[in-house]
């Protein structure tokens, strides 16, 4: 590990991936790049903890440190975050969020979904997510997508076409040749041909999958 004892690895401020020994996938951060703590006063997106029910991120601000742990104030109160539970705002990243840029952007449910920047107004970005939803958001609520989509596989999160032609999010449960059994987010299941499935790129914000 290239990190000081007692500190935790940082995420790349550009792509959001935790910077491992070999550097992040976007190539802009290497171990030892930047500070080992997010300074007081910096606005961040943070998650309060980890695990299957802790996948929501929300805006906040670093207000204090206790050793390597950050006190982050959000509108819901105080969270105590290790450095890899946060992604700080970055003017350098904002400069890369131009029309056409592929991004992971924070949706209203506090989760990150793949999309594309298609509008810029000062510090704001208009993002259209792959499922068709779109919204203006602060540039700090998007990171540059470093890894492209991979083929569908069991366990992948996907956008899949249903019998009614609508595209909906789901997870691949089984494969049978050129068809995949998709469990949709509303609880339905269906076999979908490979051509009607788009797998999400690998996400920097999921601990698994
Ligand atoms: Zn990176």
Q: Could you walk me through the main structural features you see in this protein, from its secondary elements to its overall organization?
A:
- The chain has 209 residues and is mostly beta strands.
- The chain has 3 domains: 1-89, Roll (SH3 type barrels), CATH 2.30.30; 96-144, SH3 type barrels (Roll); 157-199, SH3 type barrels (Roll), CATH 2.30.30.
- The protein has 1 helix and 15 strands; from the N terminus they run E-E-E-E-E-H-E-E-E-E-E-E-E-E-E-E.
- Strands 4-3-2-1-5 form a 5-stranded antiparallel beta sheet, with no helix packed on it. Strands 9-8-7-6-10 form a 5-stranded antiparallel beta sheet, with no helix packed on it.
- The two termini are 24 Å apart.
- Zinc ion (ZN) binds at residues 12, 14-15, 17, 24, 26, 28-29, 146.
Topology:
Layout: E1 43-46, E2 58-66, E3 69-74, E4 77-81, E5 86-88, H1 91-96, E6 102-106, E7 112-121, E8 124-129, E9 134-138, E10 142-144, E11 157-161, E12 167-176, E13 179-184, E14 189-193, E15 197-199
Antiparallel strand pairs: 1-2, 1-5, 2-3, 3-4, 6-7, 6-10, 7-8, 8-9, 11-12, 11-15, 12-13, 13-14
This protein binds zinc ion (ZN).
Short characterization:
The chain is built from one helix and 15 strands. It is mainly β and 209 residues long.
């Amino acid at each position: 590990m290239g990190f000081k004892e007692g500190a935790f690895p940082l995420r790349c401020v550009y792509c959001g991936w935790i910077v491992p020994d070999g550097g992040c996938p976007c190539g802009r951060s290497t171990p030892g790049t930047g500070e080992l703590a997010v300074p007081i006063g910096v606005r961040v997106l943070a998650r309060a903890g980890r695990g299957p029910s802790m996948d929501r991120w929300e805006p906040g601000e670093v207000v204090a440190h206790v050793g390597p742990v950050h006190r982050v104030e959000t509108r819901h109160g105080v969270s105590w975050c290790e450095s890899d539970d946060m992604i700080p705002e970055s003017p350098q990243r904002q400069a890369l969020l131009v029309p056409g840029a592929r991004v992971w952007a924070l949706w209203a449910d506090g989760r990150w979904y793949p999309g594309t920047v298609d509008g810029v107004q000062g510090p704001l970005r208009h993002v259209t997510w792959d499922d068709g939803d779109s919204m203006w958001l602060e540039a700090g609520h998007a990171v540059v997508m470093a890894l492209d989509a991979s083929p569908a596989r069991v366990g992948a999160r996907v956008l899949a076409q249903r019998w009614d032609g609508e595209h909906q999010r789901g997870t691949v449960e089984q494969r049978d040749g050129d068809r995949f059994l998709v469990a949709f987010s509303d609880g339905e299941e269906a076999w979908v041909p490979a051509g009607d499935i788009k797998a999400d790129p690998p996400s920097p914000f999921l601990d698994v999958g």
